[in-house]
Specification:
With about 270 residues, the protein is of the alpha+beta class. About 45% of the residues lie in helices and about 15% in strands. The protein has ten helices and nine strands. The chain has a four-stranded antiparallel beta sheet, with no helix packed on it. Strands 4-5-6 form a three-stranded antiparallel beta sheet. The protein has a two-stranded antiparallel ribbon with strand order 2-3.
């Protein structure tokens, strides 16, 4: 299911009071009226109309990094090469045979919640430059850190996730689906039972939960124990398998993909 997308409306706010209190704030609302308009305002640089533009923001940040790099001591020993990307700032750092790929995404927080809208493109097709897909990445990281502190093997759930998203990649289910299934499994199976000796059992628990979700064509978006915007509190979670209800052929394909995945997991575990 495609992620929800939002537009981020930008308005200039007067910060002259902050300047009077000694804070280092530039009031863009009144400063732009006093300065000659040879240079484009920051609002025009980053926005299309009144809405924050992902591609313009990416280009602006790219130029900022490019200029700042010349003033960093490491610029003499590391080679910086920018990679073309319209919705992020991506570059490669290299020195000799060492190489490091860096990608910086942009996000806007929804109030004081753990929910953001991100510059990362939506999974399905073309994303407009003023469209910001919703992301729960920060909330999910907080949840994983929370459960890791309470289980015998703090990284076992990540190893389980790695099996399904990396080793069994291409088995018909997306990484976001696996991540959601694992998070639900962590709330169903007591955390005391996530130990190394029970690794295989936990893999089959995860598979069992996925089978249940595919069979009933329902996988709730995971929103437990995270800070949500007021408008989302008390709202029924999104069904990530909604498309399986609308499309019987997709449901049959999901069942086939599950059966194939089950066979692959049996073969993988039998070979070790």
């Amino acid at each position: 299911m495609a992620a929800r997308t939002f537009s981020v409306r930008v308005e200039l706010v007067c910060t002259c009071k902050g300047e009077q209190l000694g804070q280092k704030l530039l009031c863009l609302l009144h400063h732009s009226q006093e300065e000659p308009r040879q240079k484009r305002s920051l609002l025009e640089t980053l926005c299309t109309g009144s809405y924050l533009d992902v591609e313009k923001t990416s280009h602006w940040f790219y130029q900022l990094v490019r200029c700042s790099w010349l003033h960093v001591p490491q610029c003499y020993s590391w080679h910086l090469v920018f990679q073309p990307c319209s919705r992020s700032c991506r570059f490669q750092l290299s020195r000799g045979q060492r190489s490091l790929m860096v990608e910086m995404l942009f996000g806007v927080r929804q109030g004081d919640s753990d929910i953001f809208v991100s510059s990362q493109p939506a999974e399905a097709g073309f994303t407009e430059s003023t469209a910001w897909p919703e992301t729960y990445a920060v909330a999910e990281v907080k949840f994983f850190r929370h459960v890791a502190r309470q289980m015998p093997c703090e990284s076992l759930h990540l190893k389980c996730l790695q099996v399904f998203t990396c080793i069994l990649r291409g088995a018909g289910f997306s990484s976001s689906t696996w991540k959601t299934v694992v998070m639900h499994a962590l709330t169903i199976v007591p955390l005391s039972r996530w130990s190394r000796r029970e690794f295989v059992l936990r893999l089959w628990d995860i598979m069992g939960y996925l089978r249940f979700c595919v069979q009933w064509r329902r996988l709730d978006h995971f929103v437990l124990e995270i800070s949500l915007p007021p408008a989302m509190r008390g709202v029924e979670p999104l069904n990530l398998f909604e498309h399986l209800i609308r499309d019987p052929a997709a449901h049959r394909e999901a069942i086939r993909a599950y059966d194939q995945l089950q066979s692959c997991l049996w073969m993988l575990l039998s070979s070790h």
